[in-house]
Amino acid sequence: MPPSAAPAGPFFSVIVLNWNGKDLLGECVGSVLAQTFQDFETIVVDNGSTDGSVEFLRERWDDRIRLVVLPSNEGFAGGNNAGIREAKGTFIVLLNNDTAADPGWLSALSGAIHRHPDAGMFTPKILNYYRRDEIDNTGHVIYPDGLARGRHRLEKDDGRFDEEGEVLHPSGCAGVYKREMLDQIGLLDDAFFAYGEDVDLGLRARWAGWRCYYVPAAVVFHKYSATTGTYSPQKAYLVERNRLWILIKNFPLREIVLSPVHTACRYAMHGRGVISGKGASGRFARDLSAWRLFGVILRAEAAGLAGLPRVLRQRRENRARRRITPAQFRTLLRRFSMSAEEVALKD
Q1: Cα–Cα distance between 235 and 254 in angstroms, integer?
Q2: 64, 16 in Cβ contact below 8 A?
Q3: Which of 278, 314, 342 shows the shortest CA–CA distance to 147?
Q4: Does residue 229 surpass a pLDDT of 60?
């Protein structure tokens, strides 16, 4: 008799990344394990926590999860990459530890995957955990200088966003990625550490010809920035530095040349936010100072420029994987774009 085939892996590998989130894990991991669709594995990656998270996980779910313990904090990118390398699923699901999934979340995603078999990415409807009639995001939209934010963020979940359809790419908060696609384009960029690595991954996938679909029937509730904080100097620094790398690494040359004009418009809107108290800049200036915000931006731009030799090498490497033209990529950027006012003045 011929040897029996090796057993297939699970349909989904759900990866929960944790850093000092012991108080968040009970609800998050519990909601994953309670899914009605059960063809999945759960991998929790601990990013060097010091709050007893590892002991809690082992005591509560040692026989139901796979635990990857890292000796230090490797950031969102490094931590999730460690989980992806351990994963055996056909589809990789990245899930923040500050979330709770609806019981039918994976079932709805499975249905969408079967409806769109050629797609490489999927994103659920992510709602505000505390105000469950409010959208956190339905995927991402992007500004012409590389800065992205949640699509439909802060809009009311009143039925307007219940149609399944194509979006630019998922939010890393609860993104779904085909393993075949990741094998082709590579994993998250470790150098980003945190913020924007999901944007970079999504744009690389788009260049390679992979589509992304929004699945409104798949619902996740998000405690926004519960792990990292909402308006910290470190977050502002990483967001601004990484958006420059996203731009240089992924945008067509014409858009890169024109981007300083768009950045100047965005900075002008941020200045308006500082004066009016609106948006992230307004809150940052109120809680810290406008001068400190200015210093953070300067430091981020300098660090972004210092990293350009590496980013330019990656741009050349990624060019070989492109399956769409610059004109087609520009169409995507326009289709899923946002204004300077939206990026600067909305929370």
Answers
A1: 29
A2: no
A3: 342
A4: no
Taking residue 308's Cβ as centre, other Cβ atoms within 10 Å add up to 14
Side-chain-side CA neighbours of residue 286 (13 Å): 12
Model confidence, pTM: 0.93
d(CA 150, CA 266): 17
CATH (domain of 215): 3.90.550.10
Question: What is the rounded radius of gyration, in angstroms, for the C-alpha atoms of the chain?
Answer: 20
Residues 6+ apart with CB under 8 A from 146: 199, 243, 244, 245, 246, 247, 250, 251, 259
The token duo for 281 is: 């800049």
Residue 85 lies in a domain: yes
Residue 227 in domain: no
Task: Indicate whether 288 belongs to any domain.
Answer: yes
For the stretch 116-163, pLDDT in tens is: 999 999 999 999 999 999 999 999 999 999 999 999 999 999 999 999
Domain boundary among 222, 252, 267: 222
Residue 340 included in any domain: yes
> Residue 258 sits in which domain range?
233-345
The answer to whether residue 231 scores a pLDDT higher than 70 is no
